[in-house]
Amino acid sequence: METPRVLLVDDSRVVRKIVEMTLWRERIEVVTASDGLGALASVADAQPDLMLLDILLPHMDGYQVCQVVRHHQDYHDLPILLLSGKGSVVDRVRGRLAGSTDYISKPFDPAELVWTVKRYLYTPTVWERAARREQRVRPAPKRWWQR
Question: Which of 42, 52, 93, 123 has its CA 20 to 30 A from that of 134?
Fold first, then answer.
């Protein structure tokens, strides 16, 4: 796998910048979106290996985005980590019911964020998704008789 790609969806510019810089130091590419509808468009465009998703978003909340992504054939196994200030047990259970993989509470420790992201990035399923993405992007190699 080349550079892992994370889709970060949060309406706070400050949170987006902190997460982006934290993951950049770990050589993880970060694509950002600031609302639920932008998240759905970015999933298709960026083909991320993991999604960090805030719950309280404009236009469509994180639970709804999570459900839509989970029902899509190509992204049903995409790791989705909810990243939210709503850290109650009810919110965590609601996140699991929506299809989230894990939950990170704000404010978060950058080391915990990196550890959790890497825990879900470096799995066989994610490696397979990245390989499929690279095959779609790269042109097929020319055969010796086509040169």
Answer: 52
- Please give the order of strands across the beta sheet that includes 5-9: 29-33, 5-9, 50-53, 80-84, 102-105
Residue 117 has pLDDT above 90, yes or no: yes
36-75 per-residue burial string, b: 16 or more CB within 10 A, e: under 16: bebbbebbeebbbbbbbbbbebeebbbbbbbebbeeeeeb
Q: List, for residues 57-79, the tens digit of each pLDDT value.
A: 998 999 999 999 999 888 888 99
Domain boundaries along the sequence of the chain: 5-136
Largest Cα–Cα distance in the chain? Answer: 63
Nearest to 29 by CA among 49, 9, 13, 10: 49
What is the sign, positive or negative, of the torsion defined by CA atoms of 11, 29, 132, 45? Answer: positive
Quick one: how far is CA 17 from the chain centroid?
15
